[in-house]
Amino acid sequence: MWRQDMELAIGLHGVEDHVAADFNDHEDDREWKRINLIVKSWIYTTCKPEFKELIMYPSKTVFSLWATIENMFTNNGHSSIAVYASRLQRIAHGLCDIRKPLDDEDLVVYFLRGLDNRHRTAR
Fold first, then answer.
1. Burial code of 73-108, b = ≥16 C-beta within 10 A, e = fewer?
2. Shortest CA distance to 101 belongs to which of 112, 113, 114, 91?
3. The overall pTM is greater than 0.90
4. What is the pLDDT of residue 23?
5. For residue 74, what pLDDT is reported?
6. In whole angstroms, what is the distance from residue 65 CA to residue 18 CA?
7. How confident is the model over 42-61, as a mean pLDDT?
8. What does the chain look like in DSSP terms, one character per residue?
9. Are 88 and 110 in contact (CB under 8 A)?
């Protein structure tokens, strides 16, 4: 649902080029940089604080930020269940380190939602 909301906002404001696969960096363009900051702000302000801490890097462009988020949620399908579980466990430990632990039930739900169709029987 978050992605649909973000894609709607991005489309309504005509800034799809900032998240497009054929992204072109306009580092010297002031207006481009301003829009980049606005869209980054939309993303950061719509994320839960504990997730925001995992993705927030000051120098990221919207394109790289969008790719980071997308990879966190869609790249799991190319991994074995063991690799995916290990990655999720590292994230959970990281959240504990910053005093934002997930309870076991939420962790299981996140794990199951992240499995792709190859693992539908396990899911």
1. eeebeeeeeeebeeebeebbeebeeeeeebeeeebe
2. 91
3. no
4. 62
5. 64
6. 10
7. 83
8. -HHHHHHHHHHHTT-GGGT-TT----TT-HHHHHHHHHHHHHHHHTS-HHHHHHH--TT--HHHHHHHHHHHHHGGGGS-HHHHHHHHHHHHHHHHHTT-PPPHHHHHHHHHHH--GGGTTT-
9. yes
Best CA proximity match to 62, nearest among 108, 118, 115, 10: 10
19-39 pLDDT, tens digit per residue, is: 886 666 676 888 888 998 999
| Tens digit of each residue's pLDDT (9 = 90 or more) over 73-103 | 665 556 677 777 888 888 888 888 888 888 8
Domain boundaries, the chain: 2-74, 79-119
